[in-house]
Amino acid sequence: MHTTCWERLLDSPALRLAPGFLDRLQADEVLARLDGELEWQRPRLRLYGREHTLPRRQVWMGDAEARYRYSGQDFTPEPWHPAAAWVRDRVQACLAQIDVPARFNSVLLNRYADGEERMGWHSDDEPELGEAPIIAAVSLGAERPLRMRWKHGVGKPFNVWLPHGSLLLMGAGCQAALQHALLPRRLPGLRISLTFRHVVPR
Ligand SMILES: O=C(O)CCC(=O)C(=O)O
Ligand SMILES: [Fe+2]
């Protein structure tokens, strides 16, 4: 079986990057299918009493019971697209090889048309995700940095550059210790990310 190479970015909490998770052809094909075949949404959100338009597009997908609250709104997942389900199975098999027995029942797909589109600072620590969630993020298209900063203490912020076809593992404890953001940058090109999660059914 194909063995994936991992870079250890942090040991505690575990933050790992597999730059060559998908090869070029696989990554190109999944990017094209997800871009062309999903109904990308740009929801309006109320934050601090003001209406905002999401500065990216997204699709929430998963098993029917994986309902989720995000930024004050309830989302019922779309059924699995075959390309997303294929990536999910690959991610789970790849994590099993490094003894991370994750099962993901949902994925948030984010579509950034160019470097202006973004995601602000947050941790994926909603109660629906349980105590110490494991999040696996697959990146397709334009390579951009995920900015990370520590919530406590004096550790410096840092960038994790996410190449086309890469897999980032944010292991148990990452969401409690760190926030992350995809900040705007003068970089051209479409990028799609898939952040796999396990939602504890209500
Ligand atoms: O696009 C990315 O790589 C970040 C996405 C993210 O943080 C999320 O979906 O929670
Ligand atoms: Fe996130």
Automatic annotation (TrEMBL):
It comes from the Bacteria. GO terms for molecular function: dioxygenase activity. SUPFAM superfamilies: Clavaminate synthase-like (SSF51197). Residues 103-200 form the Fe2OG dioxygenase domain. Keywords: Dioxygenase, Oxidoreductase. InterPro entries: AlkB-like (IPR027450), AlkB-like_sf (IPR037151), ALKBH3 (IPR032854), Oxoglu/Fe-dep_dioxygenase_dom (IPR005123). Coiled coil: none annotated. Transmembrane segments: none annotated. One of its GO terms (biological process) is DNA alkylation repair. It holds the Pfam family 2OG-FeII_Oxy_2. PANTHER family: ALPHA-KETOGLUTARATE-DEPENDENT DIOXYGENASE ALKB HOMOLOG 3. This is Alpha-ketoglutarate-dependent dioxygenase AlkB.
